[in-house]
Amino acid sequence: MRIDIKQCADMLMAQDNILIITHAHPDGDTLGSGFALCRALLKLGKKARVICADEIPTKYLNAFGELEMPEFKEDFIVTVDVATTNLLGDIAEKYGNIIDLCIDHHNSNTLFAKNTLLDGDAAAACETIMEVIKALGVSIDKAIADCLFTGISTDTGCFRYASTTAATFKAAAELVELGADNGRINRIMFETKTKTYAAIERLALEGMQFFLDDRVCIITVTQDMYKQTGSQESETEALPSLTRQIEGVEVGLTIREKPNGECKCSIRTFESVDASELAAAFGGGGHKQASACRFECSVEDAKKLLVAKCEELLK
Hints:
2 domains; Diaminopimelate Epimerase, Chain A, domain 1; 6-stranded mixed beta sheet; alpha/beta; 11 strands; 13 helices; 17% strand
């Protein structure tokens, strides 16, 4: 069932023992949404915690700090910034069919939850979470503001993407007024690289491949590359944006190999191709220009499937 902001807030107010789930391979928006909502619920005296199938990158903890969360048996389950249960990763089997509330901003949302608050016009899920927190009557302190600003800034590419609206700028300005450390957050998110990330970025660029008259660019990250560089998958969030920086590329694909030999793909496109349509063909979802999907096959097999679908979409 589709619900509005007030219904969402009323639903959360009526619950306790709330589990908040982010999507796998977490980014700033899903984490910012999850931790901002968790902090707000804790301020209301409720029990709440955030979980993710994958490790949370250190830079996000550096941006908005660690949070002590209580242990409890969950009675109410919420997903944030999740368009489809496939994006929950390894915990999808456990939680995918029992989500009580989904708060999202992807028009490709499959309405998998019992209740869905969906604002497809929002540039980031954190914009919607901000309105939910206000409706809960919780004052946004610096810690919450840092979480929300992180999500908005990262999901808009530091306000560079076309999805950024006047409402986005207004929300960001309000968060800065409320104490969000925008300079530090943007420096951590966009200007700071670990040495291990720099090493894996070099290998990824050296192995970059082009298909379909150079309209499709593919970056591949294998388990061997992680071993060579000492890096981790949680460090590779910045790689997908590299594919869109190359002149003439309309579809950028970043395929990461999982330890079990399967893989997942981050998709970046321009207006000529709907990234969410490409992702949906393989059970994934997201935005028109940024989406993701997972494959239960090898990197090479996934590459063939993706290129074939791209050829169909680029006609």
